[in-house]
Specification:
By secondary structure, the protein is mainly beta. The chain is built from no helices and 11 strands.
């Protein structure tokens, strides 16, 4: 049974930092595309960051480039999202995502599994 469990969300002031974690079970983690998406109520889902398991290649949404970093620890089956210089526009529910890493890259179309989400609230 596959499972993704997020943690690390919370409330932070503008300009602050948070690190989200997602522990995966039921996957061959080293061959799984991992990523983070976010959703604001009333808006669509935004792909924030994704990571290819073999090449460690990463991709970021323009809105978070230079501020967010995705990484993973294969020994812990955990993927992280380090977030710096947070703004109110980063307020959202953040979801961990996983998909097949069989290809040489990880387009969002391969992501099929989602966690329950962790709320990030940025206030001034």
């Amino acid at each position: 049974q596959v499972q993704l469990v997020e943690s690390g969300g919370g409330s932070v002031q503008v300009g602050g930092s948070l690190r989200l974690s997602c522990t995966a079970s039921g996957y061959t983690f080293a061959r799984t595309c991992m990523g983070w998406v976010r959703r604001v109520p009333g808006q669509g889902r935004e792909g924030v960051a994704r990571l290819h398991p073999d090449s460690d290649s990463t991709h970021y949404a323009d809105s978070v480039k230079g501020r967010f970093t995705i990484s993973q620890d294969n020994a812990k089956d955990t993927v992280y999202l380090q977030m710096h210089s947070l703004t109110s526009e980063d307020t959202a529910m953040y979801y961990c995502a996983a998909g097949s890493g069989a290809f040489s890259f990880c387009p969002w179309s391969v992501y099929t599994d989602w966690g329950q989400g962790t709320q990030v609230t940025v206030s001034s």
